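Standup notes
- DV: blocked on the single-chain target, sequence here:
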Amino acid sequence: MRIIRNAEEGRRLLLSRKPLETDELPMDVRETIFRAFGQELAPEEVVRRVIRDIREDGDNAVRFYNTRFDNAQAGDLRVSEAEIRAAYNSVDGEIVDALKFAAGRIRRYHEQQMRGAWFDFNQSGLGQLTRAIQRVGLYIPGTRAPLPSTVLMCAIPARVAGVDELYMTSPILPDGSVPPVKLVAADIAGVDGVFRAGGAQGVAAFAYGTESIPRVDKICGPGGLFVTIAKKQVFGDVGIDSIFGPTETVIIADESANPELVAADLLAQAEHDALASPILLTPSHFLADEVSRCIERQLGKLERAKIARAALDNRGGCILVNDIDHAIELANYYAPEHLCLVVEQPMAYAAKVRNAGGLFLGEGSPEAVGDYTAGPSHTMPTGGSARWSSPLGVSDFIKTTSVVNLPDEITEELARAASIIARAEGLTAHAASVERRIQGR
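- DV (later): unblocked, structure below
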C-alpha cells in the first residue's frame, strides 16, 4: 500500500476524483460493443441505441441485448414462481437463515424512518399528505457475485414505505437463469416479480415498459458504467434514486487502532472492484507502516487478491495527516460513501463529520457488517454525492402532497399580500383571482 506523507499531495492523488466515464473501456467490453453494433461506439451512444431499440421493439430487444451483452439466452423474461420456489432447494439453509436475519434488522431500522401526514387546518390552514410511490423497479447487478444483500437493502425500505408494486431486474447467467440466492433474497424481501434483463436494457425496460416488463415510476439500485449512463438518460421520463459509482471507504485511525483490523477493513472494500477506493487517514507513521505490512500478508489469503491489489494500486492508499481533526477535514472534503472512525473515543469526533454516506464508530463496528446485517441500507451515496444526498431509505419511496385548506379568517390577510406580489410580478390574472376572494367581505 502506498503511503503519501504529504497531505496536499494525498488530496491531489487520492481525494480528487475523475469522472467514471473517463476511464478507458476494457478490451473485452470494446469487443462486445463491436459484436453488438458492428462498430466501436462510446458508452453514451451504446446506451442511447439500447434505449431506442427497447422503446421500439420491447421484449425482442431485451432478449437481443441479453444475448449480445451477457451471452445469455432467455425465453420468458419473467422468472416464474416455480423457479423462485426451486431456488430455495439450491441455496444452503444456513444462507437462507442469515438472509432472513438480515432482513429483520433492515426492516426494523427502516420502520423508524417512516413519516406520517400532518394537518394544521385550524391554525395555519396547511398540511401534508404522504403517499408511497405506486410502482418501483429495482436494478440489482451481479451474476458471479450475485449480491443478495443488495436485494434486501433496496427492496425492504420500499416495502416498509408501502410501495404497491415492487419489481426487480437482474443480469442472467449463460443458461438464462438468475442466481438462485438472488431469487431467495427477492422472495424474502417481498419483491412482486423478477425479470431477466441486465445492464442498460434492464433500466430501459423499466423506464418505458415492454410486453413482459412493466413500466415503473422510479428505478432504484446500483450498477456499473452502462447502468449509470442509462439512469441518467431515462431520468425525467422516470424517477431514479441516485447515480452510484464504485465503492469508497475512508478509515480514520489513530495509534490505538489494531493494524491487522484496519488492513482487513481496507481489503474488504478493495475486493469489491478494481475501481474501489480504500483509503486510510492517520497521523501515526507507525500505524501506516504496520497496516501496509499487514495488507501484504493478508492479500495472499484472499480469493479476490488480484482485484483488491488493483484497487489499492489504482485509487487506494494512506495519507499521513497532522492529527484526527485534520483527517476529518480531509474526509469532509472527499465526502466518502463510508467513513470509519477507528480512534479512541470516536463519539467525540462524530459530531465533526459533515459529509459521509455511512459513519462507523470504533473497531466493533466494521463497515463489512454494515454491508450485510447492521440494518441501514448499504446503498449509499458515492462520488462525493454524500455532500448533498443520503443512503437509500424509506424517503426514496415516498412522495408528499402539500395541502392548503385555509380558514376563512386568514384568507383575506393572505389574499391581500398575494395580490400585491402578483401585481409586482405582472401576473394580473393571479391578482384578480385572489382579489375576488376579498371583494365584498
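- Follow-up: The radius of gyration is 25 Å.
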